[in-house]
Amino acid sequence: MACISSFNIIKDRFTVFLEENGHRKTPERYAILEQIYKSEEHLNVDTLFSKMIEENYRVSRATLYNTLDILIESRLVRRHQFGDNVAYYEKSFFDGKHDHIIMTDTGEVLEFSDPMVQEIKKTIEEVFDVSIDTHSLYFYATKNEKSDNE
Questions:
Q1: Which CATH entry fits the domain spanning 97-150: 3.30.70.1350, 3.30.1490.190, 1.25.40.180, 2.60.120.260?
Q2: pLDDT tens figures, 50-75
């Protein structure tokens, strides 16, 4: 997880967002935020639900979905769809922009960042006279099998 002082900044930003948008500040919402920021992986609702139970938080799936929607709206969490029908979530504050390679044979998700992607983004903005707020780039891949000569 982010260090304590970094997490306090994230928590404060969430508090301000909740207040400005008329949402209740519940312990469950803060616990969900903390669980996501403790994780180093992409979480789906089932995994997040299990982790909350392990931490002795009794939250319903409806609370998870509602809180995730609020966290996405506050830009503290990102939602991804990696080619299946399951949504995955990850922290986004203090977490640099990155893209994904989804291994279709193993289900593994690899993250990478390449300055060329930023250059492509800038070119698109210039050519189409737009400002890109966010982007998602997914590559779907399988591991190359080694030949007998290697």
A1: 3.30.1490.190
A2: 999 998 988 999 999 999 999 999 98
d(CA 66, CA 64): 6
Q: Please tell me whether 99 is known to bind a ligand.
A: yes
- How many CA atoms does the CB half-sphere of 73 hold within 13 Å? 12
pTM of the model: 0.66
Judge whether 79 and 138 are in contact, CB under 8 Å.
Answer: no
Nearest to 43 by CA among 70, 68, 21: 68
Q: Any binding-site annotation on 148?
A: no
Domain boundaries, the chain: 1-95, 97-150
What would the CATH number be for the domain defined by 1-95? 1.10.10.10
